């Protein structure tokens, strides 16, 4: 029994040639938990799983021992149709059967690529074919490459579609960094940052429209590539090399970190069990807990979503009012716990209200009531 490992580092044929794990997969960061941060990272890793899986399966099956059995396999297929194992009729059957194999395996391949694969199969179909190690590698690479093209025709659009949908949901559009002007620098090559930037998008879409828009934009984007999908994928596609610090907006990371802290808090309370009441009454816990809640609700108010999940503005206004009320309650709770004084309670209320007014809440309300058709 032979054991075959399917790994990004082992799959080095087709589109994976010269690429290692770090340049293929985005979800391997944070001890393989990185895929939870971006949907497009998960789509990318699934696509590379198919690409590398095909690579390793072809390598495992197409061995010198297996190739030696291919001529006898064709003879057995001919016997099922009562065709002699030699002669002109068998040669015609062999050509037709090779065409059948190619059409079944690579239906979307171009005529030139199909002819190239058929040439390999013709040579393998001859009795006792003399196949060198280099030629076997060529056959493997051509077969894997054609399979990769077929996978790329569907999966690449999925990755781009998920990236667009995610930016719509975040209300954060990815843009190219602005180039400095001539007065700031004389060397654009060394001073221009390659770190992507995100720009806040005003307005919102319904959830259904956002999905349809992402699908259509991804399709049109791929169809309009001047160099084609394959060249784009080999030379410009870099989703697998993206990082948390560079390719996720800071506001999104902060929101995720705050949610994670709240989950850790709940887990800690569960683990403590009977000791929870005493721990929950401690001043340190109360201050940290209320501060965390305060920061979380502040994030929810300041971060607008580009996808409208409701169908009316009234619900959104009520939601905003509730969020602001909870924010003020959190502030007052911290003050009461620390000072236990009505004077400080009044001061906290007035300063909190003033801070909120200075923060221009009317602009936030207006942004959340905008609905783009």
Descriptive notes:
- This protein has three domains: 14-152, no CATH class; 154-176 and 196-243, no CATH class; 249-369, no CATH class.
- It contains 18 helices and four strands.
- The chain has helices spanning 21-24, 29-32, 39-61, 64-68, 70-80, 88-105, 111-125, 133-170, 188-191, 207-223, 228-235, 244-247, 250-272, 276-280, 283-302, 313-339, 342-358, 361-369, and strands spanning 172-175, 197-200, 205-206, 307-308.
- α3 runs antiparallel to α8.
- The longest helix has 38 residues, at 133-170.
- The chain starts with 20 loop residues before the first helix and ends with a helix.
Task: Specify the structural class.
Answer: mainly alpha
Instruction: Count every beta strand, where a strand is a DSSP E run of 2 or more residues.
Output: 4
Percent of residues in beta strands? under 5%
Q: Report the sheet with the most strands, covering strand number, pairing sense and barrel closure.
A: 2 strands, antiparallel
Number of helices in the DSSP assignment: 18
**What's the shape?**
elongated
| Terminal Cα span | 61 Å
Q: What quaternary form is this?
A: single chain
Query: Could you name the ranges where pLDDT drops below 50 across 5 or more consecutive residues?
Result: 182-193
Give the neighbour order of strands across the main sheet. Answer: 1-2
Count of structural domains: 3
How large is the radius of gyration?
Answer: 30 Å
Order of helices and strands: HHHHHHHHEHEEHHHHHHEHHH
């Amino acid at each position: 029994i032979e054991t075959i490992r399917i790994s990004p580092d082992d799959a080095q044929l087709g589109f994976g040639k010269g690429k290692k794990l770090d340049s293929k997969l985005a979800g391997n960061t944070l001890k393989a938990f990185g895929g939870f941060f971006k949907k497009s990272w998960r789509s990318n890793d699934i696509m590379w799983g198919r690409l590398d899986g095909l690579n390793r399966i072809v390598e495992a099956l197409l061995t010198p021992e297996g190739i030696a059995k291919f001529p006898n396999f064709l003879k057995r297929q001919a016997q099922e149709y009562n065709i002699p194992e030699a002669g002109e009729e068998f040669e015609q059957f062999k050509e037709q059967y090779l065409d059948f194999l190619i059409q079944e395996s690579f239906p979307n391949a171009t005529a030139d690529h199909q002819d190239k694969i058929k040439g390999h199969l013709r040579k393998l179909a001859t009795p006792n074919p003399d196949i060198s190690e280099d030629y076997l590698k060529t056959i493997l690479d051509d077969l894997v490459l054609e399979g990769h093209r077929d996978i790329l025709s569907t999966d690449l659009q999925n990755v781009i579609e998920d990236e667009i949908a995610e930016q719509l949901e975040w209300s954060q559009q990815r843009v190219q960094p602005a180039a400095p002007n001539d007065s700031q620098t004389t060397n654009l090559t060394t001073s221009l940052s390659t770190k992507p930037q995100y720009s806040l998008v005003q307005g919102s879409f319904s959830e259904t429209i956002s999905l349809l828009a992402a699908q259509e934009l991804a399709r049109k984007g791929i169809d309009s590539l001047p160099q084609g999908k394959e060249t784009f994928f080999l030379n410009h596609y870099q989703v697998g090399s993206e990082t948390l610090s560079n390719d996720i907006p800071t506001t999104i990371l902060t929101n995720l970190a705050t949610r994670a802290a709240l989950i850790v808090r709940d887990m800690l309370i569960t683990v403590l069990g009977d000791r929870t009441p005493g721990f929950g009454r401690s001043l340190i816990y109360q201050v940290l807990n209320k501060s965390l809640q305060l920061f979380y609700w502040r994030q929810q108010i300041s971060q607008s979503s580009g996808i409208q999940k409701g169908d009316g503005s009234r619900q959104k206004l009520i939601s905003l009012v509730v969020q602001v009320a909870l924010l003020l309650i959190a502030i007052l709770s911290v003050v009461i716990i620390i000072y236990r004084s009505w004077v400080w309670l009044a001061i906290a209320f007035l300063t909190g209200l003033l801070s909120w007014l200075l923060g221009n809440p009317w602009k936030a309300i207006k942004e959340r009531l905008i609905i783009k058709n």
